[in-house]
Amino acid sequence: MNKMGEMLAQAQEMQQQMEERLAQIVVEADAGGGAVSVRMSGKKELLSVTIAPSAASAAATDLSLLEDLIVAAVNSAARKADEASNSNASSMLGGLGLPGF
Questions:
Q1: What CA–CA distances, in Å, run from 41 to 54, 60, 68?
Q2: Is 81 within 8 Å of 74 (Cβ atoms)?
Q3: Which residues in 85-100 are b (16+ Cβ under 10 Å) and which e?
Q4: Does residue 97 form part of some domain?
């Protein structure tokens, strides 16, 4: 029983360390050749959105294009955050000698 409690405490500590690492990771992505750029944390918190002046001007006549570019940039950043999260988890769990990590 005591060994299981130790393992649970170790797992909780590793989870907290992983959360702290993810909060420090920042990924960037863009869409439309840089017309829209976003920054996102490893925890998938959107940190910033930058819209190029030319894209903002074009939005006056086609707002849906700008909306699509924002969605594409955010989705791309989310994929990068997932990759960073998976990489971080693999590096932390790899040291435990678990199969598949």
A1: 27, 30, 21
A2: no
A3: beebbeeeeeeeeeee
A4: no
